[in-house]
Amino acid sequence: MKIIPANQPIDVPHPILCIFGQPGIGKTSLGYSGRDPLLLDFDQGAHRAINRRDTLAIASWADALELVEQKGALDAYQTITVDTVGRGLDMLGEYIIDKNPKLGRDGTLAIQGWGKLKSDFRLWLTRVRGMGKDVVLLAHHREEKDGDVTYVRPDAQGASLGEILKNSDLVAYLYMHGRDRLLDFSPTDRWFGKNPAGWNPFKVPVAAQATDFLAGILDQGREALGQISAASAALTSQIDDWRAQIDTFTTYEDCNGAIPEIKKLSATMQPQVAKLLLDHAQAHGIPFDAKLKQFKPAPKAEPAVAAGSLL
């Protein structure tokens, strides 16, 4: 067990990227544009792709399991593309029921079966990443209506949609805008997305020119996730330094002296450090004047009254 302190960055060397879009928009061809890709063809549609690379036709989830259990099977590849993840999870559900019929009812997963699917899918992804592979999850989109609004989501049944989104570091919708194909990572009121890097939509080249497109996206995602983690660790470290400094304050003058420096901090740090200071002052009986926005001396205790003075 390894606990990573908050002031240390978490390395994300192999992100999971989910791309969903309508059939025929070129998702499979795009799935071959990672670095040294192997495409797991759950949908049996790889023959329609342009720039096809190495492909493994998947007949059942047992094939996907064998791939991670067979020593050296993935050594030649850097990117594992699942096409489509919705069909892959369907096969996983069928595999679970076949192995343990009590986890299904009338051919569908029972509640316990869905729990098994979640844990097995997460474990499979973890094993692939643990082999040093990037993972691309391709999905068809499904249109749903909410009143007059039509929105789209990755096509996956039941609780498996939540697992796709939860396990993906980056989620993008691939769609046509005029004659351009756009890959948009930002969530909107019409589709899901995960955009930790704050990217604008990417214009996807025509398939013949997109032979390394996802390799570039994954490299940028790797860098962005690393920077986010490093920035978070640096922020935690700075707050720890402020906490140690504030713990030495014993007077209202000490507290007031820190206020100008706290005002210079970033919008992210400022409220956290201000709360540390206020909590410390309160614990030490140092009052804060909200109108003057400064600390003030604690009121002097009234001298004790002798009991005899009442007589």
Residue share in β-strands: 15-25%
The percent of residues in helical segments reads 25-40%
- The CATH topology of the largest domain comes to Rossmann fold
CATH architectural label of the largest domain: 3-Layer(aba) Sandwich
User: In the CATH hierarchy, what is the class of the largest domain?
Assistant: Alpha Beta
* Unreliable sequence segments: none
Shape: elongated
Mean pLDDT: 85
**Domain tally:** 2
Distance from N terminus to C terminus (CA atoms, Å) equals 71 Å
Q: Structural class of the helix and strand makeup?
A: alpha/beta
Describe this structure in words.
Helix content is 38%, strand content 20%. The protein is α/β, with parallel strands linked by helices and 311 residues long. The chain has two domains: 211 residues, Rossmann fold, CATH 3.40.50; 49 residues, no CATH class. The strands form three sheets. Strands 1, 2, 3, 4, 7, 8, 9, 10 and 11 form a nine-stranded mixed β-sheet that branches. Strand 9 and strand 10 form a beta hairpin.
Compile the SSE list and pairings.
Elements: E1 16-21, H1 27-31, E2 37-41, E3 55-57, H2 61-69, E4 79-83, H3 85-99, E5 104-105, E6 108-109, H4 111-130, E7 134-146, E8 149-154, H5 160-167, E9 170-177, E10 180-184, E11 202-204, H6 213-246, H7 252-263, H8 269-283, E12 288-289, E13 294-295
Parallel strand pairs: 1-7, 1-9, 2-3, 2-4, 4-7
Antiparallel strand pairs: 5-6, 7-8, 9-10, 10-11, 12-13
Helix pairs in contact: 3-4, 6-8, 7-8
